[in-house]
Amino acid sequence: MSLKRRTAVLWAIAAGAVILGSGAQTWIQSTGLAGVPGATVTTSGNQAAAVVPAMALVGMASGIALSMARRVGRVVTSVLLVLAGVATGWSSVNATLRPADAARAQVSAATGTTADAGAYAVTAWPWVTLAAGVLLAACGIAVLVAGRGWRDNRRYDTRSTDAGTGTGAAATAANTVAAAGTSPGAAEPVDEIDAWDELTRGEDPT
Prior knowledge:
Blueprint: H1 5-23, E1 26-31, E2 41-44, H2 45-48, H3 51-66, H4 71-97, H5 99-102, H6 104-111, E3 119-122, H7 125-146, H8 167-180, H9 192-200
Antiparallel strand pairs: 1-2, 1-3
Helix pairs in contact: 1-3, 1-7, 3-4, 4-7, 8-9
């Protein structure tokens, strides 16, 4: 299975954004309220399923993390994506199948009683959220399978050196060697990572 890192990142962020947006929409419309004839109470996705906005943020944050995660980090991130997608999907289905429970707080606030509304109308937004949750979980599975073939992003490793050891000068020397392509005293090309390793050992790659 071929999946580019950039595609996975955009996939996760987009699915999380859809979940976040759909959760802010009206999921349930309650009518036939006791003592409030003709009134309609609306319940948003965030009210019906409080876990939805949190899972949306988890999905988007995981997508961003994929852009820099290494092997173990990718596994952890993919598991988070799957869990966030499953939690989102389950919450959406539960609110759809049990609208009275999902909208009880809003109905009670409007009527001042614990009586259920006479009728509940479920909009299409819970299904949109469900679809986005499935996409989020699918992204996690895809990363778990295809992410093993991704190259580790090594550019962040060069930032982990000790302070006060001439980091700026060392980075400049490493870049110079990498640009030249070869070390004057070596037969093999010296890339930036190799040059950096020599510098950390106190050797001069130039």
